[in-house]
């Protein structure tokens, strides 16, 4: 094999220079994106991920870590009326039972407090927002997450996050064209 052969348009570094090139690129990634942006998996002891139970033992097991990973963005995807909100409300109830604070951004304006209570949600303690626009919902979510005081934020649903411009009817030529079709 030639030392500087090209594989798919990328020059291969000679074998004796590879370790040095790899360390240089890893240092640049750390500098540009922060320490820990890239690492060798074997260099660090694996940290057990904190989880929030979904309330369904089989689903928690299927997720592989025992529930929903805490501190991450999770999207529950499925057809209409498939139980997405129910799963989210069970997670909210489990957070509250553990002494945590939960927020529910009800973009659909469809949260049923009676149903939520039947699932174990402490509706008196639940923080609820029914935003007028998608931007407002995301700003509220950002503030809640940024506070560090909330343990779970549910946005129900992403499909209902309608941009302000669409609500105001100010989409210009695109809206005009859509109406013509």
UniProtKB/TrEMBL annotation:
InterPro entries registered for this protein in UniProt: DNA_recomb/repair_RecA, P-loop_NTPase, RecA-like_N, RecA_ATP-bd
Keyword Magnesium found: no
Gene Ontology terms describing biological process: DNA recombination; DNA repair
Molecular function, one GO term: ATP binding
One GO CC term, this protein: cytosol
Keyword ATP-binding appears in the UniProt entry: yes
Residue ranges occupied by any RecA family profile domain in the UniProt entry: 48-181
Pfam families: RecA_N
Keywords attached to this entry: ATP-binding, DNA recombination, Nucleotide-binding
Similarity annotation: Belongs to the RecA family.
Name of the protein described by the UniProt record: Protein RecA
